C-alpha cells in the first residue's frame, strides 16, 4: 500500500485553475461533491498500489477522474440507445419511437403556452380531456373516450369507478401479469372491487359467469391475454358472448385490450390481434388500451366506450391523480392525426418497422454487412460477418407467439471478446443493444432507425479499438 499523505488538500485542489474553471461552468457544490469522489477514487487506488506517487502526479490523476465523473454525470441518465434486438415494442427500451407529427407537436406545446384547459371559443376554463376525444371516437367508433396516464391507470380507473365495493367477475384464464408487475388481481384489489374468479386456468364457460352473478356484481371484466397463449384443451368465453350476458343482466363489460391496434395489419401476417374498432363494435361498454404499444404513440391509457360511463369517470376523483400530461397529450394527438393522413403505415414508426418487407430487410442487412466488412474486417478481432434470417418480435405484450421474419447480421469475434465488446457498446452514448446467438453478436436491422447503421459501424470500431488498447495494456 502506498502512503496517502501526498494527496493534496481539498482547498488546494479547489484553487487550481482547472477546478476553478469547472466551478464557473457547473454548480459549485456539484463540483465539490464530484471532487471528493475523485479524491476517494485515488485513495482507493493508492491502497492497492506500490511505490510513492508524487503530489503533482496525484493532482493530475485526481483532475482526470474529476473530469470523467463530471462528464458522466452531465450526460444524464436517460439516454438514447440504438435498438438492434429486432423487438419493435421493447418496454425496457422505451416502447414506441414517435413519428414526426408527434414530435413537432411535442416541441410546440412544450415550448409555448397552450389551450390545455382553456376553451378558446368561450374564453373560459375548458377540459384537457376534450382534445383527442373526437379523434379517438372517429378512429375507434366509440361514443366517447378518455385518456389517462397509461393503460394500467385506465384499468384501475374503470374498476374503481364502476365496481368499487362491488364484485368484478373475471375468468381464471385471464388473471394475467404484464411485464413491470401489472397484475390483474392486484389492480382489482387496489380498485376496491372484489375479484370473483370463475372457471379454471384452461377452461371457462359462459355458465361460469352466469352462476357467479349476484346482486352485488358491479361488472364483467375480460383481459386480452396478449402476452401468453393457452393452447390445447382450452376454452375462453368470447367478448361477444360476454357482452350478450352483460346486456341480459344489465352489467357493464370492461375489456382490457392492452395493445390497442388501430390500423389493420392483417396483410402483414399480424392477424390474431383484434382491433380497437372490433372490440368497440362487439358492444363492450369500455375498452382500454395503451398509447405506446401498437398505436405507436407516447405513454397513455385510452378508455373508449359508452358515454355515460366515460362522463362519470371524467368527474371521478381518481382521474385527477391519473391525468394525462400535456406533453403526452400533444404527442398522442400528433400520432392520432397521422392515422387520418392516409398513410399511417409510412408515418408511424412502429407501423413502418412492423410492415417492412423481408426483401427490404435483407438488402439493409447486406448493406450493413458490407459497411462492417469494408471498415473492420481487416482488423484482428472480427472473424466473420454473416447476413442471416432472424426472428423479430412485436413485443410490448402483444403478439406473444408471433415471430416476424426479419434479417440481420451475425458477427463472430476472435479471442472470446463478444461480452467485452457488447458491454463497451452498451455503455457508449448512444448505447447499443443487440442479441446474442451462440457465441455471436446478432444484430437485427428491423429496429435500426434512420442513420443507425452508420452509428453501429462507428460504435463497433471504437469498441474494438478500446478493447484492443485495453488488452495491450494488460499485456494480453
Ligand atoms: C400492456 C398491458 C397493460 C399495461 O399497459 P401500460 O400502458 O403499460 O400501463 C395492461 N393490460 C394489458 C392486457 C396489456 O397488454
Low-confidence stretches: none
Proportion of residues in extended strands: 15-25%
CATH architectural group of the largest domain: 3-Layer(aba) Sandwich
| Mean pLDDT across residues | 92
- Count of discrete domains: 3
What proportion of the residues is helical, as a percent range? 40-55%
Number of strands: 17
Distance between the termini: 26 Å
CATH topology title of the largest domain: Aspartate Aminotransferase, domain 2
Strand order, sheet with most strands: 5-13-12-11-10-6-9
Anisotropy-based shape: globular
CATH superfamily of the largest domain: Type I PLP-dependent aspartate aminotransferase-like (Major domain)
Structural class: alpha/beta
What does this structure look like?
The chain has three domains: about 1-75, no CATH class; about 80-90 and about 355-475, Aspartate Aminotransferase, domain 1; about 100-345, 3-Layer(aba) Sandwich (Aspartate Aminotransferase, domain 2). It has 19 helices and 17 strands. The protein has helices spanning about 10-15, 15-25, 30-50, 55-75, 100-110, 135-140, 150-165, 185-190, 205-210, 240-250, 275-280, 305-315, 315-320, 325-340, 345, 350-355, 360-375, 420-425, 450-475, and strands spanning about 80-85, 85-90, 120, 125, 145-150, 165-170, 175-180, 180-185, 195-200, 215-225, 255-260, 285-290, 300-305, 380-395, 400-415, 430-435, 440-445. It has a seven-stranded mixed β-sheet, with helices on both faces. Strands 1-16-17-15-14-2 form a six-stranded mixed β-sheet. Strands 3-4 form a two-stranded antiparallel sheet. The two termini are about 25 Å apart.
